[in-house]
């Protein structure tokens, strides 16, 4: 006797995962998810592991990973390997990018504070400028 793998219709996948049907279709189009087929009515059918994949995708996105990066990880996983080494490299790159952004934001903050410290409400020649504080930089 064959044991049939438990499957889920796209609507129940959306309900259980909190991911909209439109997004699930998009993920399938990108190759992040694979259907097990379709019903006679044309509804997508997914294997029960789709929820694990969706949770992985959502968590990876919250960590700042792109869908292309996530697809690479899932492709490695689908070949029967764990993508943890690749994930570690990408997360280290994200930390580096965030550190650069923090430095750029600190420089911008100092520049804005400098502009605000010299604030004058009414310019001497208002017809020649839109806002002299911004334009003097």
TrEMBL record:
Residues 88-115 form a coiled coil. The keyword Electron transport does not apply. PROSITE patterns: HTH_MERR_2. The keyword Protein biosynthesis does not apply. Residues 10-76 form the HTH merR-type domain. GO terms for molecular function: DNA binding; DNA-binding transcription factor activity. Keywords: Coiled coil, DNA-binding, Transcription, Transcription regulation. PANTHER family: HEAVY METAL-DEPENDENT TRANSCRIPTIONAL REGULATOR HI_0293-RELATED, REDOX-CYCLING DRUG-SENSING TRANSCRIPTIONAL ACTIVATOR SOXR. This is Transcriptional regulator. It comes from Chroococcidiopsis cubana SAG 39.79. The lineage of its organism: Bacteria, Bacillati, Cyanobacteriota, Cyanophyceae, Chroococcidiopsidales.
């Amino acid at each position: 006797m064959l044991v049939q793998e438990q499957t889920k219709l796209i609507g129940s996948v959306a309900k259980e995962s909190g991911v909209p049907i439109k997004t699930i279709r998009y993920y399938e189009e990108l190759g992040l998810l694979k259907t097990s087929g379709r019903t006679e009515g044309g509804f997508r059918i997914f294997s029960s592991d789709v929820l694990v994949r969706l949770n992985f995708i959502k968590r990876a996105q919250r960590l700042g990973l792109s869908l292309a990066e996530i697809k690479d990880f899932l492709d490695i996983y689908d070949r029967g390997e764990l993508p943890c080494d690749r994930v570690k490299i990408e997360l280290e790159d994200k930390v580096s990018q965030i550190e650069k952004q923090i430095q750029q934001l600190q420089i911008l903050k100092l520049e804005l504070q400098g502009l605000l410290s010299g604030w004058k409400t009414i310019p001497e020649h208002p017809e020649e400028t839109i806002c002299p504080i911004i334009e003097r930089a």
